[in-house]
Amino acid sequence: LRMHHSGRHSCRGWRSNEVSQWSVSKTVTVTVRSVPLSGVSLSVQPPGGQVALRDRLVLRCTVATGTGPLTFSGHREGSGALLATDPHLELHHVGDNDSGQYWCRVSNGDSVAESDPLNVTVLDERDPRAGGDL
């Protein structure tokens, strides 16, 4: 069901007994309500949120429960810019400035929910944490 299915409904059918005729049911009122959003989470590829400089980073926002239409937005700590407007964000060549906390926000018009922040660390090959040589 969708929100626009709310309203007054009846059905009609051909009844064949002693006198064949169309028969109409009683009218019922149907009210479709949205299900509040919950269980919004953000996942990252590569797992653990550690990505090598110039590699690819993929973030995916998911919703456990809630009805739509759903709108998504992706965010990064310290950035005023909107990073994504769908549940999938892919950065093809991450840079030093892509490290930080990321989260997503989902709205269905009636409720809004956010994921917990997820830490992403961009590792430079020359950084000892990345296992490279200095």
From TrEMBL:
InterPro entries: Ig-like_dom, Ig-like_dom_sf, Ig-like_fold, Ig_sub. Transmembrane segments: none annotated. Residues 36-121 form the Ig-like domain. It comes from the Eukaryota. This is FCRL2 protein.
